[in-house]
Automatic annotation (TrEMBL):
Enzyme class: hydrolase
Keyword Repeat set for record: no
Protein name: Fructosamine deglycase
PROSITE patterns: SIS (PS51464)
EC numbers for this chain: 3.5.-.-
Assembly notes: Homooctamer.
Species for this entry: Sporolactobacillus terrae
MF annotations from Gene Ontology: carbohydrate derivative binding; glutamine-fructose-6-phosphate transaminase (isomerizing) activity; hydrolase activity; isomerase activity
Domain SIS: 6-143
Length: 322
């Protein structure tokens, strides 16, 4: 079923939807963020919530019920917390949509609708998960409240994958340089703003802490001046994700400070990929995280090569029960 048909089908069963919850773990939780951010910004009536799955399970929002849509997301579809959240949402009468790479996985058992996404085929396929979740959010707003920039958004979805695949073809030398320059870094701080904030979060917790065992912390560029900037000094390693659009001034302000004290800063900037040449200004905010997450993968791969530490290496995950 097409994404707009899923939402129209829910609407035919329940014309009054008042809340939408986005639930997942780790990288999948972060991939739900652009959709959540979009609804939080644009909805006038709909409540939007974003949860790590066990927080949803242990401290379930009171509004979850027949007037809710719960979108759960898991790449492999087996993460127990997220599988449980889907069942819980269903038992409370919510309309459940599972987003996963594997349509046969346990995640889909209690889902009213299943959305499958690619992953391995290309760099752009790796971000089809957040793109589909974001599109679901746009379809929900359009169906239940109306959304003026809907056509611009759909046009953008039609272009973003090519933008990513073309960008990643040119990025290898820069990514190699990053790998060499940061391979011995004792810590890497990551920040971004707006819909991109959780790309910083997932790069920090998944790519650096989980897959590289590199100490890391992440924060919103807006929070940088409310604590983290005290750590800045010459050659401190930072990765700054700069967005086009509404929150760019927050990223620019952080960059200016990092440069003032000669921090070791790598900037991944949506502007360098001419995002605004492809995506209309009124929807560009939501495409920053898709583009930046897509191109960041190649930086993580090159860091892993330079450190001789494959991204698949784990100490505990999949090896112990926990
Ligand atoms: O997206 P899935 O399959 O639920 O997997 C979640 C797991 O994958 C990661 O996002 C990356 O390995 C972890 O942070 C998390 O534990």
């Amino acid at each position: 079923m097409e994404l707009n048909q899923i939402i129209r089908s829910i609407q035919s069963k329940q014309s009054e939807i008042s809340s939408v919850y986005f639930v997942g773990c780790g990288g999948s939780k972060a991939d739900l963020y652009p959709g959540f951010y979009f609804l939080r910004k644009n909805a006038k009536k709909l409540i939007a919530g974003h949860f790590t799955a066990n927080e949803f399970n242990y401290d379930t929002p009171a509004a979850v019920g027949e007037h809710s849509i719960v979108i759960t997301c898991s790449l492999g579809g087996t993460t127990p917390e997220t599988v449980k959240a889907t069942g819980l949402a269903k038992s409370l009468g919510a309309h459940t949509i599972a987003v996963t790479h594997d349509p046969q996985s346990p995640l889909t058992k209690d889902a009213d609708y299943v959305v499958t996404h690619g992953f391995h085929e290309s760099y752009s396929a790796k971000v089809s998960k957040p793109t589909k979740v974001l599109t679901l959010a746009v379809e929900i707003l359009n169906a239940f409240e109306g959304y003026n920039a809907y056509d611009h958004f759909i046009e953008g979805v039609g272009k973003i994958y090519d933008v990513i695949d073309e960008a990643t073809e040119l990025l290898l030398p820069q990514a190699k340089q990053f790998g060499e320059a940061y391979k011995d870094a004792p810590v890497i701080y990551v920040m971004g703003s707006g819909a991109t904030a959780e790309v910083a979060y997932s790069f920090s917790i998944c790519l650096l802490l989980e897959m590289q065992w590199i100490n890391s912390s992440s924060f919103n560029s807006g929070e940088f001046f409310h604590g983290p900037f005290e750590i800045v000094e010459k050659d401190k390693p930072f990765l700054l994700l700069m967005s086009e659009g509404s929150t760019r001034p927050m990223d620019s302000r952080a960059l200016e400070f990092l440069n003032r004290f000669d921090a070791k800063t790598t900037v991944i900037d949506a502007k360098d990929f001419a995002l605004l040449n492809y995506i209309a200004e009124d929807v560009v905010d939501y495409f920053n995280p898709i583009l930046i997450e897509g191109v960041l993968r190649i930086f993580a791969e090159q860091l892993a090569i330079a450190r001789n530490h494959p991204l698949s290496k784990r100490r505990y995950m999949w090896k112990l029960s926990y």
